[in-house]
Amino acid sequence: MGKRGSDIILGVGSLYLVATPIGNLEDLTLRALRVLKEVGLIAAEDTRTTRILLKKYDIHTPLTSYYQGNLKAKLPHLLRTLETKDVAVVSEAGMPGLNDPGYELVVEAISRNIPVVPIPGPSAILTALVASGLPTHRFLYLGFLPRQAGERRRLLKDIASLPFTLIFLESPHRLGASLQALEEVLGPRRIAVGRELTKLHEEFFRGTIPQAREHFPQPRGEFTLVVEGAPAQEKSLTPEIARELLQLRREGLHAREAIARVAQRTGLSRKELYRAWLGAQG
């Protein structure tokens, strides 16, 4: 493949991180299709799933397994291959390196000045988020919740006050416990649950966390949970702020300047602060 950039060493392969379909095989991009045909080796998290994809598109590139159980053993082989050939990494579905193999190889490749090229495409995270109906401008992706109940609750308590939309992945046999923990710690927040995204039986549930628990009594398939962030804290005029306004008035500040200063610091409305200013006794 062609190499670009002055930092790229001639004769060294590139590491391609190729996003593959999360369900519907037609979601493979044209660029991903070309890369998978042209690289010297494909390192796949699940060779069975990848073979189905390669067969559909008549791709005959050599394939090797690269999954959680053989990461350390396979890493030297992939790095040696990258000395002379391009290598593509694919996960079972979606973008490699997110809860899937790829991160360790990326770190080693960067340390050796081997070009790392992401090939974007399908993502369960973004697919669920944009269809959730929840705010998309700020979100926090947290992968799978911890298996242990205590660790799960501690994590949720740590993030309970964050205003970001929260995104989790979950398997069917753990969905019930996770939804229960979400309800116990976060309360009846809004949630969107994407099930079997892009597949034949794709489903989106939108409602509250308690309603989601009722809707999935016997869950099947793979799930992506999109949970409403913490509501904005209502700001109110406290006695301390009232005393601050009184002090500023005694110091001779004009109302406009004093109110602007306090509004910037507290986030309170200038209208509310002006009423408090009028009520302050100098």
Order of SSEs = EHEHEHEHEHEHEHEEHEHHH
Low-confidence segments, given as residue ranges, are 2-10
Largest sheet: 5 strands, parallel
The CATH class of the largest domain, by name, is: Alpha Beta
- Structural class comes to alpha/beta
**CATH homologous superfamily label of the largest domain:** Tetrapyrrole methylase, N-terminal domain
Oligomerization category of the chains in this entry: single chain
Cα gyration radius (Å) = 26 Å
Mean pLDDT: 90
Tell me how many strands there are: 10
Share of helix, binned: 40-55%
Number of domains: 3
Strand order of the largest sheet: 3-2-4-1-5
The CATH topology name of the largest domain reads Cobalt-precorrin-4 Transmethylase, domain 1
Beta-sheet strand percentage? 15-25%
Q: State the shape.
A: elongated
Q: What is the CATH architecture annotation of the largest domain?
A: 3-Layer(aba) Sandwich
What would you say this structure looks like, in words?
The protein has a 5-stranded parallel β-sheet with strand order 3-2-4-1-5, with helices on both faces. A 5-stranded mixed β-sheet has the order 6-7-10-8-9. Helix 2 (47-56) links the parallel strand 2 (41-44) and strand 3. It has 3 domains: 15-122, Tetrapyrrole methylase, N-terminal domain (Cobalt-precorrin-4 Transmethylase, domain 1); 125-227, Tetrapyrrole methylase, C-terminal domain (Methyltransferase, Cobalt-precorrin-4 Transmethylase, Domain 2, 2-Layer Sandwich); 239-279. The chain is of the alpha/beta class and 282 residues long. The chain contains 11 helices and 10 strands. The chain starts with 14 loop residues before the first strand and ends with a helix. Helix 10 (255-266) packs across helix 11. Helix content is 41%, strand content 17%. The chain is elongated.
